[in-house]
Fold this protein.
Amino acid sequence: MDGQSCGAHVAQLRRLVWVLLTWASLLTMVLVVSISLHFIIPRASNVTTPQKPPTPTPGTPILYDFGQCNQTVLTWRDVKDDVMVKQDGNYFLYLQVTLESTNKGVDYFIEVIKVISGKKISILEGHINRSQKSTGLIGKELRLSAGSYLHVTCTPAPSLSEQTYLGMILLR
């Protein structure tokens, strides 16, 4: 190799080394800033607060998943007592009650009761006969008042599946 080509080669290597050192320095600074921000800026905690019961908007379904069955009364997840109606309006109310297993020889009676000012009114009824495992989907359009409660019972006391649910849609 002659002296000029060797010198050009060394100059090119110096430029490549300089680019590499600059790139490594830049990455190091980004890493330092990232780690510093990790300790300086607090992260949101993983603690979740209980959600408020949803407020109905027309056309949006509100679904209550089955929680447990206390004797013959069905309770819903995320609801302390019975489901409370938040606003006056016409609603489409729908329910499906599903047993864990078929109980031959037993007929079940499911009832949705509207409770307003202590007065109980049956608004929806369904049956599970001896050979079935579910009511299927039962529903009804009706007028509900704000402050009324929906109470669901099933007699005799059943062993229910998590496929049991109650839903309501505020109509216009």
Remarks:
- The two ends are 89 Å apart (CA to CA).
- The first strand starts at residue 61 and ends at 70.
- Residues 1-46 form one domain.
- The mean pLDDT is 83.
